[in-house]
């Protein structure tokens, strides 16, 4: 310290010179970092100028303070690197093969996240993601890595692995040039692994095979490498073996990303085209959009245009994710970042949309955009009718973050007011239901999941729904149209038998990967669900791939649970939507004491109608309280009764007071009782308790 002060005294400059040097130093740092003017260095920074040049006291640290989050970030993560030193990649894997754990280790090794801030599944922000051990929402992170004395910018895009979110996976793949294919070294190739690899190949990505969990006792890397080469056809001569949990092989993965994944195309002078791969709603700033700049540049203050939603906005803020949000002045072609533009709804910035400049628009949008189409539907009703407004508000808030969630009002004579909701799949449905119950403290009843059916009507007469609400997700009002087609997801909205020619239902192609010991059991399961066998092949000596085509309605029940149960957890599945095919479907109605109970109706296949009707009537007989009169419980197809049960009456012993006397007196009392019961049956009404509805709905989920 004394030496430093002595040298300082010999070459101390004037106060004006010192202030000028300080301002010049700050301007040079801000220019080099390309940060927003809202970022400021500490006011307490002190400079000491000596004969050898400008040196700073230890009070001036190589840290900035993010204006939005207050988080400290290193200067080096904001330094601009040439496009040739940018690598955009993602991690694709089957569920539970270690994708999020590997992402955590990459963030930690590169210093993107400090050790004190590190936690498991760092990029999984939702409590549900941590509890279920799955990734639901896409995340992104910018990492800096030194390789060959050169700084490289590595943009990691984390992807969900479940089949329900395959569209989000495809859009995140389109934002990358390469992918890490993570395969469990003990389990090998699974169904979703194949599906994600095919998506990556369609996007012409450079795929780096990574064998994870090699530290497990049951790991067989040689067998899995051979399996990848035979099943997928990838060259695994340069496959990387690692253990994300133990940190083994992480440096080799980072080096492989730099060496093998190509840099993005440098098109900074072209009109702006940026691909949206995720978005979420912030209550203070509106929708925050995650995007990859394909062509051109985007900076704060630009007027931008969304080509699919056809909406224009001003860019209030642009920045990078490291992994917290940090503002920058401009993003160039090849970079990944976020955008805030005071957007009110996620529907205006959908995944897959293209961002361009409002004044200098691109000639064409980026390919691959699709509208999110719900595939599974169910009714959500509050247990307490007073919670209906809270349920509506909760669904509206969830829809701000989830553009794939659709809902419309629905009423039921048994369960009151609720909503008919559309989801991407069963997991999506479970997640939404659990979030409603957990985050908004709602108690809900869910009806049996169903799919959308298409009904070909006989003529062009108008079809009007009996629902009291004027707006529906599925248009049911047709008049004099060339193709008389009605889409319906609710049995109560199905046109009458005299108005329909045929009914079509959605079909899927399902691929099951299973050990050879369970082939027969899984084929039996698919056959029982009206599956049509297509192909079977052995991908290895002990594992087979079985392909079936079957109705989606047969999968929305307990198909996945049965698949795991029959294979002792070893089988996996993946399905793709094929389209609609005509089927012999009918509407099964339930009548109690001659009254039609609409909430218990179901659309079933003709071959399963008797079994379903028998199961429902028997269950209702157990659950409905006995009445003073005999109650018939019938399952009907139109006017034809296919299954029936009778609930015997509660009989009062009217002869108890007749301890003797003429038999005619007893006959008179019995006759009077019979007439009373007959009159009571004609005017009496049977109230089905809510517990009975819930039990029957649970039964429908099992038998449909």
From TrEMBL:
NCBIfam families: lepA, small_GTP. It comes from Theobroma cacao. Residues 84-265 form the Tr-type G domain. This is Translation factor GUF1 homolog, chloroplastic. GO terms for biological process: positive regulation of translation; translation. Its main location: plastid. Transmembrane segments: none annotated. Its EC number is 3.6.5.n1. The keyword GTP-binding applies. Promotes chloroplast protein synthesis. May act as a fidelity factor of the translation reaction, by catalyzing a one-codon backward translocation of tRNAs on improperly translocated ribosomes. Keywords: Chloroplast, GTP-binding, Hydrolase, Nucleotide-binding, Plastid, Protein biosynthesis, Signal. One of its GO terms (molecular function) is ribosome binding. GTP binds at residues 93-100, 158-162, 212-215. One of its GO terms (cellular component) is chloroplast. SUPFAM superfamilies: EF-G C-terminal domain-like, P-loop containing nucleoside triphosphate hydrolases, Translation proteins. SMART domains: EFG_C (SM00838). It is an enzyme of class 3 (hydrolase). InterPro entries: EF-4 (IPR006297), EFG_III/V (IPR035647), EFG_V-like (IPR000640), EFTu-like_2 (IPR004161), G_TR_CS (IPR031157), GUFP (IPR027518), LepA_C_sf (IPR038363), LepA_CTD (IPR013842). Belongs to the TRAFAC class translation factor GTPase superfamily. Classic translation factor GTPase family. LepA subfamily. It is found in: Plastid, Chloroplast. It catalyses: GTP + H2O = GDP + phosphate + H(+). Residues 1-20 form the signal peptide.
């Amino acid at each position: 310290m004394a030496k430093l002060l002595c040298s300082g005294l010999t070459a101390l400059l004037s106060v004006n010179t010192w202030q000028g040097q300080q301002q010049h130093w700050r301007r040079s740092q801000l220019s080099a970092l390309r940060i927003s003017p809202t970022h400021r260095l500490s006011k307490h920074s002190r400079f000491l100028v000596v004969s050898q040049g400008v040196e700073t006291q230890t009070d001036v640290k190589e840290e900035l303070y993010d204006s939005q989050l207050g988080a400290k970030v290193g200067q080096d993560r904001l330094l601009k690197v040439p496009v040739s030193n940018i690598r955009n990649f993602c991690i694709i894997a089957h569920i539970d093969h270690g994708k999020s754990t590997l992402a955590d280790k990459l963030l930690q090794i590169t210093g993107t996240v400090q050790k004190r801030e590190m936690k498991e599944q760092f990029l999984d922000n939702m409590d549900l993601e941590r509890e279920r051990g799955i990734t639901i929402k896409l995340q992104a992170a910018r990492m800096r890595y030194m390789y060959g004395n050169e700084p490289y910018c590595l943009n990691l895009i984390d992807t969900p692995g479940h089949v329900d979110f395959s569209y989000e996976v495809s859009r995140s793949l389109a934002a990358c040039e390469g992918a890490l294919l993570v395969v469990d070294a003990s389990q090998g190739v699974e169904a979703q692994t194949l599906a994600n690899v095919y998506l990556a190949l369609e996007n012409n990505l450079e795929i780096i095979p990574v064998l994870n969990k090699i530290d497990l006792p049951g790991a067989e890397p040689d067998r899995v490498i051979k399996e990848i080469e035979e099943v997928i056809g990838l060259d695994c001569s340069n496959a990387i073996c690692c253990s994300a949990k133990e940190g083994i092989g992480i440096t080799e993965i980072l080096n492989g990303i730099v060496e093998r994944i190509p840099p993005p195309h440098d098109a900074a002078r072209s009109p702006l085209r940026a691909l949206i791969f995720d978005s979420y709603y912030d209550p203070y700033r509106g929708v925050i959009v995650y995007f990859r700049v394909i062509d051109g540049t985007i900076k704060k203050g630009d007027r931008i245009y969304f080509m699919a939603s056809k909406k224009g906005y001003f860019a209030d803020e642009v920045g990078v994710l490291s992994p917290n949000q940090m503002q920058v002045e401009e993003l160039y072609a090849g970079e990944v970042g976020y955008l805030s533009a005071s957007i009110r709804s996620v529907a205006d910035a959908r995944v897959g949309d293209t961002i361009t400049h409002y004044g200098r628009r691109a000639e064409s949008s980026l390919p691959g955009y699709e509208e999110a189409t719900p595939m599974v539907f169910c009714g959500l009703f509050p247990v307490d009718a007073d919670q209906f407004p809270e349920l509506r508000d909760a669904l509206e808030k969830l829809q701000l973050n989830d553009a794939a969630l659709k809902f419309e009002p629905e009423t039921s004579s048994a369960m009151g007011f609720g909503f008919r909701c559309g989801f991407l799949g069963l997991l999506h449905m479970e997640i939404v239901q659990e979030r409603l119950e957990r985050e908004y403290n709602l108690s809900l009843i869910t009806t049996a999941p169903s799919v959308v059916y298409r009904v070909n009507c006989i003529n062009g007469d108008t079809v009007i729904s009996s629902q009291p609400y004027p707006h529906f997700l599925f248009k049911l009002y047709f008049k004099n149209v060339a193709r008389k087609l009605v889409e319906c997801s609710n049995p109560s909205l199905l046109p009458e038998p005299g108005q329909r020619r045929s009914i079509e239902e959605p079909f899927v192609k399902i691929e099951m990967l299973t050990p050879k010991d369970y082939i027969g059991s899984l084929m039996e399961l698919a056959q029982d669900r009206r599956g049509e066998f297509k192909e079977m092949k052995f991908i290895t000596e002990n594992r087979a791939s079985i392909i079936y085509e079957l109705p989606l309605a047969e999968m929305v029940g307990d198909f996945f649970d049965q698949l795991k149960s029959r294979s002792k957890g070893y089988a996996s599945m993946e399905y793709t939507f094929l389209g609609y095919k005509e089927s012999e479907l009918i509407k099964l109605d339930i009548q109690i004491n001659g009254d039609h109970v609409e909430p218990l109706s179901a659309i079933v296949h003709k071959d399963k109608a008797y079994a379903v009707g028998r199961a429902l009537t028997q269950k209702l007989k157990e659950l409905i309280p006995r009445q003073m009169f005999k109650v018939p419980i019938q399952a009907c197809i139109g006017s034809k009764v296919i299954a029936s049960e009778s609930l015997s009456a509660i009989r009062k012993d009217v002869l108890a007071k007749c301890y003797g006397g003429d038999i005619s007196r007893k006959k008179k009392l019995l006759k009077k009782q019979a007439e009373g019961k007959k009159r009571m049956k004609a005017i009496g009404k049977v109230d089905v308790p809510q517990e009975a509805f819930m039990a029957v709905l649970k039964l429908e989920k099992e038998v449909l």
